[in-house]
Known about the structure:
A: mainly alpha, 3% strand, B: alpha/beta, Rossmann fold, 2 domains, 6-stranded parallel beta sheet
Amino acid sequence: MVTLEKRPSPSRFWSAATPVVAVALTMLAGGVMFALLGKNPAEAIRTIFWDPLFGEFAWYLRGQLLVKAGPLILIAIGLSLGFRAGIWNIGAEGQYIMGAIFGASVGLAVFPTDNRLIFPAMIIAGAFGGWLWGMIPAILKTRFNTNEILVSLMLVYVAEKILSKAALGFLRNPEGAGFPGSRNFNSYPAAANPELIAGTGMHWGVVMAFIAVIFAYILLQRHILGFQIKLAGQAPRAARFHGVNPQRMVVLCLGISGACAGLAGVFEVTGPAGQISIDFNVGYGFTAIIVAFLGRLNPVGILLAGLLMALTYIGGEMASTNLGLPAAAIQAFQGMLLFFLLAVDVMTNYRIRLFTKGAA
Amino acid sequence: MKKILLATAALSLMAGAVLAQDKTKACFVYVGPIGDGGWTYQHHQGLMAVEAEFGDKVETAYQENVPEGADAERVLTQMALSGCDIIFTTSFGYMDATNAVAAKFPDVKFEHATGFKRDTPNVSTYNARFYEGRAVMGTIAGRMTKSNKIGYIGSFPIPEVIQGINASFIHAKKVNSDVTISVVWAYTWFDPAKEADAAKALIEQGVDVILAHTDSTAPLAEAAKTPGVIGFGQASDMEAYKPSPRVSSIIDNWAPYYIERVGAVIDGTWAQKDTWAGISGGEVLIGEITEAVPAEVKAEAEALAASIADGSYHPFTGPLNKQDGTPWLAEGVVANDGELAGLNFYVEGITGDIPK
């Protein structure tokens, strides 16, 4: 008989080993699935994990990896601070959308202009939009003690409605022949967020993601605020004795994660996505939650997790096109990654005990 | 600047090297899964028809579930790099991505479905006159409804969808002056759960005929749950729901166009063009009208389809007024294609607003 026994303290070994073991198990189980679908599992795994990095077209795909990972990392860093403090912002997707709308609105309001100052103004507006959308659950929680999980999630759907309103109405391209969607920022140089060096995928959003990683690392290691965040999550009572104001923590964490998501939104809409359209958001805000946990809520971990997640997307696409794997199999493969992560994660706090019937 | 030039040169070299292969590679980008039973399924039928037609001379590849936006651009670039000679992008939202990638790969041919942008000479656009099929479905809807309420599940408020709503309503109204139409916007091409919810909402309002402009069979599955509610196959025949709720269908028949265009690449005769074929060109087919429809209604619908096919009738023929009552087309005047391609208003008699 197998039972789980709670460890006196979380295992450091398993905390670090979990992501690695989860990836290995995903490769194994995924390989079996690919084999059952009649594909060569080794080739499929190689296409997903190896080819985008070292294959024939790696010179293009490595850059695309950054394009895909940038917003995931930026949002996940913001979320991880809150998650560490036990504040659950599930609505980053909504804050991402609002950031994009605020930023794009500022840029489109002064169209056309050559003044390059418009871009920084849009970035600030984007961060503000995300922050504002994060403040709604924060204030509702501190004032009326509502549940921030529910409120932030439901605000995603409100943001989606505002997005369709923007794409069809107030931000619609007046020269678009009645079709929905804003002007394309790629043909509006002053407000665009292009690749900084062609072919590298590096745009300001990716730079910002790297800055966020460094900033979060220093905050958590060296700053009193980082200590308070960690303390609030691990021992709320002790935190209160230490003088941590829980309400201030809620406002701060939801504000930071909202602003990060908003930044990701404005960088995406002015760069890779190019325009506000009804469905420009492809779920980065939700995927970032997975990335945050895959990275153990640790800034460096999140950086690696974001890149890994991007790899499964891009490699998965290649496997799908080149090997004819169904898209559903790729989604199942990504799902396995999260499943194994959570399953193996049990080992951090519990140990497996084998009992014989008699001994039990 | 030098680096940009180098990157562009590298891209062009890659594209050039690809042409040296003898097999022609045709690639397809899909917005949904090939098993959606509707829009994407039908494009995939076209892919298989290309394979059947050219056999060893072609190689095909496809990618399902590609989101419209930044991801589409990456998928298209990957395809162009991996040696595709012609790439069919089968959703409206791929328009900017298609043109952006086409500009970088001048030797690869791009075919964008339902769009209007052809920025470089290697981009063609193609579309079908779905509204012709809608006219036939609208006629059946107007005759079959008992509650005089027909419902329409719209995807996105773009001209193509608005053409369909107008054509359905005009022809339902022609045979049943009491008919009203309710439109629900799903804001998705493919999301069976949302499509089913939209159908449910319509049925709860008393609608007994449902038309859908989304990609899955979910609206028909929902209609099947309520006796007396009928619908139509959309994009594909959806014959699994015969004889009712699916009483007829609009079938997108892309195969002849795909065979023609891939053939043109093989022969080296491919040239940019904009195609908009309908019932007469065989691109829009009317699926079998089942026994759930009375014989005289079936005959009436078939006669309408025949008159559209031989060119004697156009579904948008005046007198027609705009929703606000201002005149649009005078007696006997036919809407021109440019006007239809940018259609952004309802005709008189439809209530509700197009989302703005």
